[in-house]
Description:
It contains 8 helices and 7 strands. It is an alpha+beta fold. A hairpin with a 5-residue loop joins strand 2 (107-119) and strand 3. Helix 5 (143-154) runs antiparallel to helix 6. Bound molecules: zinc ion (ZN).
Amino acid sequence: MLNTQHNKVELSDIEIDEVGNDHISTCFNTPIRKDAFDKTDEEKIETIAKHFEAIMQTLGLDLTDDSLKGTPKRVAKMYVQETFKGLNPANKPAISMFDNKYKYNEMLVEKNISFYTYCEHHFVPFFGKAHIAYINNGQVIGLSKLNRIVDYFAKRPQVQERLTMQIGKELEHALGTNNIAVLLEAKHLCVASRGIKDDSSTTVTTYYNGEFLNSKKKEEFLKYLELNADK
Ligand SMILES: [Zn+2]
């Protein structure tokens, strides 16, 4: 967790990364308590359903209504089993690697990976596309695993900067190389549907390391993102 020195100032994760290198290993981690998994999923669903019912009651909704009475349980199950299941490391996808037998030594780009996640400030969705590239270090990964890694970290309350870094760091770990590029473009419903109500803006975040810090490699990656697979 972050130390008190940095808790005093409200810095984004990225800024904290730049402020103190003693935080490098933790600044992109989701802030989670040690007792996060003391309760079973069933116990969590029961507790959340009670609390969500209280929210609905407080808003003045009639929970005896047919359409509303199942909502607290439905929301609780959705939170624990779907939208936030990536909080639990037990749900982390198993990654299998293969030898790079064909000696493919160029970058591999997987683009337009759809993701849906929740803004941790408003608990409304933000969603979009992730684009990933890596240059292998003798081992390659099954392509669908890239989608699964994105999905795992998206299934948490998130900020886009942290989601981008978590995907990048996990790929480095799984692929045994720091030749990684990640670009996320997302629409935030907390911006589009409330507050400023800007329906047209999107947010882009990037993570580059290893060979992708070289502007030529970065340009090559960005060029491939412009290619249309349908043409
Ligand atoms: Zn938000």
